[in-house]
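Sample intake sheet
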Amino acid sequence: MAKRKKAAVAAVAEQVEAAVEHLDGGKRRKRQLPIPGTETNEIREVNVAAELYVDARDARMVKTEAEVEARDALILAMKKHKLENYRDDDATPPLIVTLIAGEDKIKVTRATPDEESGE
């Protein structure tokens, strides 16, 4: 099941990349030419806006999936090392990671200038 899900995510990622390439190159996807006598009252501006929205939504969905996987990996790492709080002072500004007890939730923030100086 996991392999099938990863294959589906990879397929969507390829489709999104192809759509973004079309947008970046100023090209639109090929559309079927109208057949005489079957014209509809379409509004080109709405069609283009809808296509752009779908492309952006699909790109966001792929990124969301990657974010969820990264979050889960961070939760597992925190649990593996039996940590509830972690601070990475080598990052600029420092990262503060907090595992919420009893839940599979994590909070990651960057230290504010006040926190960096130790006040």
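Comment: The chain has a mean pLDDT of 80. The chain is about 55% helix and 15% strand.
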